[in-house]
Amino acid sequence: MALVKLIEYDDAGPDVRAVYDDIMATRKVDWISNFWKALASDPPTLKRTWESVKQVMAPGALDALTKELIYIAVSVTNNCEYCINSHTASARKTGMTDAQFAELIAVIGMANETNRLVNGYQVEVDERIAKAARQT
Questions:
Q1: What is the pLDDT at residue 136?
Q2: CA 57 distance to own-chain centroid
């Protein structure tokens, strides 16, 4: 249960409705998810977050599916059930297959395991790796 009141469209003020309308138009949907309804309890946070999400998730050097896969990976690592579900649904809508999802989860699991091992052992970064990472 949310710790704030979820603001339904019919109960929203004009500023919140404007953001809701933009969300629905941008996402080509006819409803507002609970995430946005919760953020609407603080309209400036709703607006700021929506503008940031729109900017970051817009077409760019990374395609839409890659962005959704990254969002899933971070959400799994952060244990955010809501975001895992939300972005898995978006990734499926963008074309993610069951095989891609399974492989993604395997990569997430492996990355988390090796990250913890290297952090636990406090392994220093090899100069060759650091140099290659800095190259453009």
A1: 75
A2: 9
Question: Residue 12: what residue type?
Answer: A
Residue 98 CB neighbours (<10 A)? 8
Using the 8-state DSSP alphabet, how is residue 126 labeled? P
Alpha carbon 88 to its chain centroid, in Å, reads 9
Tell me the residue length of the chain.
Answer: 136
Q: What is the CA radius of gyration of the chain?
A: 19
Which ranges in 1-136 belong to alpha helices (H)? 14-27, 34-39, 43-57, 64-77, 81-94, 98-121, 127-134
Burial 30-40, CB ≥16 within 10 A → b, else e: eebeebbbbbb
pLDDT in tens, 87-135: 999 999 999 999 999 999 999 999 999 999 999 999 999 999 999 999 9
**Residue 84, both tokens:** 């895992």
